[in-house]
Amino acid sequence: MMRFKSICCAMLLLLFASLTTGCWNRIELNEVAITSATGIDWDGNSWIVSYQVVIPAAISSVMGGSGGSGPKSPIIVYSTKGKTIRDAIMHSYSESPRKLFFAHNRVVVIGEKALQHGVNELIDVYFRNSSTRETVSVLATPGTARRILEQFMQLQAISGAGMKEIILSEMKNTSILPNIPVYQLAMEVTGDAKSAVVPEIFVSGTEDTSSLDSFGNTSIPSKLKLGRLAVMKDDKMIGWMSRKESLGASYLRDSVKQSYVVVPCEDDKGKKGYDTIQVLKSSTKVIPKLKNNKLSFTAEVDVTGSLLESTCAQDLYKPGVIQSLEQGGMAQVNALLQEAWKKGQQLNTDVFGAAEKTHRKYPKQWKVWGKNWDEVFKQAPLEAKIKFRMARMGLSNKSFDYLTDKKEK
């Protein structure tokens, strides 16, 4: 009986082994080139695709690791050209000993000329191929995308990963610029307003940091930096929003996670200064309204803040001072909203989601408005209703200037 059971178990194991699939399509690590960032440029006739490829063996020596030969570049950048984006990518097989692996690609940087030409083909590539991910962050640059990929970064060996971390950090801590993945860009350019935004990245400084020699000093001559907001209409770029206008757009898009405002203040002696208020949380509702057959919008914004710094000699727990801070915060947020709304109307571009909200609330009227939404949006005023509440005033109920003035007396 024991022998019979053993034979049965062996047969079952053989049966299960025959049913399991092996790694018939496996790809070894030494057969692929891991791409951390991609650049897209347009030269007027052809697409130029640039790749930032990781060199794993060199990463440990970037900042002067072990080895007598000194630090080596952890990345290599090269470009290919083609009539289409996929055509350019296929040309990489003629000059790379390894197959490009895009699953770990963190960002795609698009040059200004490519943005002006249109990004529909790029979006099509990302949604048509399983090797690329729609969660890749999209960045715009006023120059060429390749130059951005060639730059090294402080505190980050692989700049492709560093660019992704920068935009996530900015979105989390200041909310001036949003993180726009490829799928979100696709949703916005195909939405009711057919408008979208893309954050800008550029080289700030006197020269490039494309050589590791730049890191031999305590300061580097230039760095990658986030800047303005590229505004898209359909799939083409039509202009820029300043950082101040971008923050106002973030409020209207209800994407402010944490930010700050600087409010003017004045003490009892007439001395002027500034109070810096951290925005702990914020929520916005943009509501379309129809009155006398005219469309308007109301932005209901609820903000909670905490005082970070005060340069005015004032007792911060006096009701009048707290009320003044809240009113100042309301005025600053209102100015941001109005500037962003005005800029959107100047560019004839609704990047605030107003079209979708109007479509849902007034589906019958949308049949007419949707045919000429740019003109309808351009004539629609915005009213802001802001609630600004100070939740905390910090550890001290008096500013340092206030305590100094009292001691002098």
From TrEMBL:
Coiled coil: none annotated. Keywords: Germination, Lipoprotein, Membrane, Palmitate, Signal. It is found in: Membrane. Residues 229-394 form the Spore germination GerAC-like C-terminal domain. InterPro entries: GerAC_N, Spore_GerAC-like, Spore_GerAC-like_C, Spore_GerAC_C_sf. Residues 26-201 form the Spore germination protein N-terminal domain. Belongs to the GerABKC lipoprotein family. This is Germination protein. It comes from Paenibacillus glycanilyticus.
